[in-house]
Each structure stands twice: as structure tokens, then as C-alpha cells.
Amino acid sequence: MGNCSSFAIPKWRSKLHNSGLVSVDEGGTHEGIKTIPIQKACEFTTNSVLCVCIITWNMNSKMSVEDVTKLVSSSRKFDLLVVGLQEAPKSDVSQVLQETMAETHTLLGQKRMQSLQMLLFGSKSSQEYIKEMKVDKHAVGGCGGIIGRKKGAVAMYINFSGIRMVFVSCHLAAHEHKVEKRNSEFQHISQSLFSKYGTPYAQFADITVWLGDLNYRLEGISSMPARKMIEENRQSKLRGRDQLLQEAEKGEVFNGYCEGTLSFKPTYKYDVGSSIYDTSYKVRVPSWTDRILFKVDHSSGLDATLSSYESLDCVRSSDHKPVKAHLCLKVRDGDEAD
């Protein structure tokens, strides 16, 4: 767990060093997405400032109480839980999660835009550490009112005991050939969120996290060869065909963001009720559509580590698998002293 109960307004912001694990230096050149290794356990433990569990799931408009409860394990070694949902049903997913988390965590905030939803939970004592919270949304298209599957993003800004965080849960344009549209939607969302407050959404954030169904696909490979590689546990060979990593490398999206290694199987598209890839006539190419990325502001004096980045294969009520990450923040070595 983090050590937020003893964390005060940081004195370390003005004392910066260059030894951070994943702190991002805002240079003029693009860096692409930095793939970082997974720490099997949160090495910071009680030295951590804050531990955050992040979950994204496209629910395919289907409600399964059993699967919703599977999102959160019984071992809840985190201070905050962020859940981003796409194609969420009209059923009250929030209520199910609140009941599931009742013994250890409480709902701190939520935001919804049709089928897009984000919920923030905190440990029982966390309410007193919230110094500021803002929510926003931005639509970029989709059928919206017809079938309730809006594209766009919902977002939350929170100042938690002096750590300023932005979480963006999004659903971008579908289909393999819509790469430029996804890039454009990312840019529009980035420029629009929290603009009513007069500043770009991430300008004053110590850490920014994007989660959601980004909808980037594998390209340059047909479905059956891709599936064969996955069956042989060689999915790592498919990373070079991932559109999101390709576009980031070009500097089009997510410049300087970090992501855990894609060691899990592609999370889309499955036959509902199974862990079998699409058997419809479309025979879609499996893809890592569902992602969690983060960026630490270099001037924050914080470091971050991922102790897990995984998909939940046991969840089968949707054609997507949920993706879950455990992120721990710590004052950078050398910045803790007064």
C-alpha cells in the first residue's frame, strides 16, 4: 500500500534530479511510447506515496454482476481505484462496484457520457486527502443517441494530498483503416478537456493516465497467422504490427507516455461468453484495442513503477477482455530530504 496517510504537501517539487524511473523530459523531439518492465511486486511498499489500480473494460452493453465483481480482487493493496468503462449498459454498474468494494473503499467521484463511464474509489480514509476534484467530458462522434455508444472521453482531475492527477477514459473510432481518425480524436480530446477552466487538461498534472478502448489494431497480418502466433504464445512478435505503437513512434499520439510490456494476449475480439477469438464471418484480426498509458511530469519530483499490466481472461460476458494495471508513485530518490 501507499503511505498517503503520512504524506503532506510536497516540499520536493523544487528539488529535481534526473534519476527517475519513468519521469518524462519534455524535449522537442518525439519519443514514442516507452515500454517499461513490470515489477512483480510493488517495490515501494510503505515508501510509496500512492498506489493506484487502473481498470479499463469495453462491456459490449452487457451486464454481468459476476464479471463486474471479478474486476476487483479480494486483495486490494491500493489507495485509489480508477475504473473506465466503454459501451457500459444502462444497468447500475456503479452500484455493483460500490457494494463489492464496501468493506475497504468508497466511491469518491464518477462521470458518465452515455455509454462512457469512469469511477474513482478511494480507501476509507481517503476523502480527507482530496484537495480538489474536477470532471469533464468530450464527444467526438459515434451513433450516440441511436444506440447509446458514444465515442469520446470522460475525464477526472484530482489533487490528492498534493499529487495532481488526470485520468482520461476514452473510446476512439473503430475499424482498422481509421488510424488517422483515431489520431485526430486523441488530439481533439487532449485539447478540449477542461478547456472551460482556461488551461490545457494536463498542464498542471503530475501524472496523466489514459485508459480505454483506443481501438488501434494490428495491421499487415491476416487473422489466422496472428491467431497461430497467439496460440503458440508468441504474441510478443505481434507488437511490431500494433498501430498505436507505430503512430506513437511517428510522433502522432501519446508522445513520451509509458506503457507496460504487452505480454498478455490481444484483448479483442472474442466470441461473447468464451475466450475464443471471433468466429463470425468477419473473422477479425485479434488486437490490443484496450490499453492503459501514463506520463509523469518530470518537474513533479515523482517516479512511477508498474507492478502489473494484464488482461482478465476469466471475464467472458463481453467481446473484449478487461485490462488492469497497478501503478505505484514514489518521491524520486534524493528528493525526499528537506
Based on the model shown, name its key terms.
phosphatidylinositol-3,4,5-trisphosphate 5-phosphatase activity; globular; 6-stranded mixed sheet; Deoxyribonuclease I, Chain A; phosphatidylinositol-4,5-bisphosphate 5-phosphatase activity; alpha/beta; IPPc; 13% helix; 338 residues
How would you concisely characterize the structure shown here?
The protein is an alpha/beta fold. The chain is built from 5 helices and 14 strands.
3D architecture notes:
Helix content is 13%, strand content 32%. The protein is of the alpha/beta class.
**CATH H-level homologous superfamily name:** Endonuclease/exonuclease/phosphatase
Q: What name does the CATH topology carry? A: Deoxyribonuclease I, Chain A
Oligomer: single chain
Percent range for β-strand residues = 25-35%
Outline, from the CA principal axes? globular
How many beta-strand elements? 14
Query: Helical region count?
Result: 5
* SSE succession: EEEHEHEEEEEHEHHEEEE
Q: Enumerate the spans where pLDDT stays under 50 for 5 or more consecutive residues.
A: 5-28
Tally of structural domains: 1
Task: Give me the side-by-side strand order of the main sheet.
Answer: 1-12-10-9-8-7
Distance between the termini: 24 Å
Label the structural class.
alpha/beta
For the CA atoms, what is the radius of gyration? 19 Å
Largest sheet: 6 strands, mixed
CATH architecture: 4-Layer Sandwich
Residues in helices, as a percent range: 10-25%
Mean pLDDT: 87
User: What is the CATH class designation?
Assistant: Alpha Beta
